[in-house]
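QA checklist item 7 of 12: single-chain prediction sanity check.
[x] sequence parsed
[x] length recorded as 148
[x] structure emitted
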Amino acid sequence: AAICSAQTSAAKATNPRAESRVPSQFEQQLINNVKQLAEANQRNDGDYFKRTLTEDFIAVPKNGGTMDRADFLEDILGADKTPENKQPWLYNIKVIPLSEGAALVTYDEIRPGEDPRYRHISDIWMKQADEWKLKFQQTTPNLWSIGD
């Protein structure tokens, strides 16, 4: 929250037309989903991911390959979640509605202790039976941070 607040203040200082506005209920729900996703990843919460990923989920991880739902779950559940792997910092979260039941959510994250630390994430969320499900995720490392 401090990072988001600092960026908002900096944006206002450099761009006088930057307005602070309260996210809509639609946007806030998706922002909350992104935060819950990061927390579940940190906790290694397989049940959360089994509930949240669509059956036809596809991911493009930071290496540029592709993963289906089963591969993604295997990767998440097998990941090392030792105490030194700190909670990622999420910032610059943007929600782009695609329809009443779909949205593209983009955000940046910093993962302390990982290489690369700085990443840009794009998620597509779909509403299925009144629940938001993650259908697609692409992780793009910020090239300037590789080896940082």
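[x] summary fact logged: The first strand starts at residue 53 and ends at 60.
[ ] second reviewer sign-off
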